Amino acid sequence: MGKEVSESCVESLLTEIVSSYGTRFYANKPELAARRIEAIGYQDAGYYYGLVLDRYTMERPRFSDHLEAIKFICKDFWSELFKKQIDNLKTNHRGTFVLQDNQFRWLSHMSIDPSPENSGSTQDPSAMAENKAAEAASMHLYFPCGIIRGALSNLGIPCAVSADISNLPACEFLSLSALN
Amino acid sequence: FEETKAQHRPFTSMAPVAPRSGDVIFASVERVNAELFTLTYGAIVRQLITDLEEVEEVNKQLDQMGYNIGIRLIDEFLAKSNVSRCVDFKETAEVIAKVGFKMFLGVTASVTNWDAEGTCCSLILEDNPLVDFVELPDTCQGLYYCNILSGVVRGALEMVSMKTEVTWLRDMLRGDDAFELQVKLLKQVPEEYPYKDDE
């Protein structure tokens, strides 16, 4: 068993990154904030991917195809990060993969506080609060999307990754690659 | 156990329960690979440097982020440690070093260099999970890489009515031989509560 820290350390970092980028650095530019948060995840994956690989293979594995590489992400990589595997993997065999985690750890532990300031809108307050909460939740997902994109990129699969949380607490990560 | 969200009392005692040691608490919480933490933090610092450009600004933001984390982390600390009200600042420092650091970072710090009044001391960290494998490039002169930690300590203490100044005296990433965090007590709110302890 290697060195450990409490999980709340990692979750605090993530919550704070979302908060800092979302409400302080790029307060009115959620797309910019999202890109930065995703970029942090992407970088993180680069380094972490190397470490995870060391545990499972002696050298970089050459996966026979994209599906094998994605399965590595779903099983070994996900277990290292979230202590469980991806619950369900779907593909259209044309470069699109959907990774479903039925109890996504980082969402289920976080209390997602909707932003307190409202910029004078005429929208119904409960709908607005709901929107804010959804926005906050999706901000939290840019980081893991970046991680997945980074890990796949390290495996030679450039792609775009997005998340779908219409069925909380389940979370679906959609990976779209141009190559097959 | 009363939850006082609006106002935090300094280490309210929960009658017959003994305080738990850092080791015991750490063993009881959910833990993750320290590497995930180290690398995530590294990625964050790198991104901040890219986005903010000025090292001083990065230092400031790391401290602010730490503060924001500290004011929330104190809740978990109080809930899990059963620490009763510290008699004095000396006890507070020991609790941070032995219980606080341990239950979150998995490492303890030592407390030294007390001033005569007992209001200023140093926390020495030999093992620091934030910095494993980290080397600062020359372009980062002036960066206090671990500044998030000073913010966390400051924020947490503020929530228990202690206003402090927390600064790095020594930083191994800057060539020193240890991580030394100075904690200076500036002001302590006297122990008068607007609420009764028992209702």
Automatic annotation (TrEMBL), chain A:
A Pfam family matched in the record: TRAPP
Entry coiled-coil feature ranges: none
GO cellular component: cis-Golgi network; trans-Golgi network; TRAPP complex
Domain of life: Eukaryota
Single GO BP term: endoplasmic reticulum to Golgi vesicle-mediated transport
TM region positions: none
Family: Belongs to the TRAPP small subunits family. BET3 subfamily.
Name of the featured protein: Trafficking protein particle complex subunit 6B
Protein species of origin: Escallonia herrerae
UniProtKB/TrEMBL annotation, chain B:
Major place of residence: endoplasmic reticulum
UniProt cross-references to Pfam families, sorted A to Z: TRAPP (PF04051)
Residues making up the signal peptide according to the UniProt record: none
KW Endoplasmic reticulum (keyword) present: yes
Annotated GO biological process: Golgi vesicle transport
Localization per record: Endoplasmic reticulum; Golgi apparatus, cis-Golgi network
Family to which this protein belongs: Belongs to the TRAPP small subunits family. BET3 subfamily.
Protein name: Trafficking protein particle complex subunit
Organism (species): Escallonia herrerae
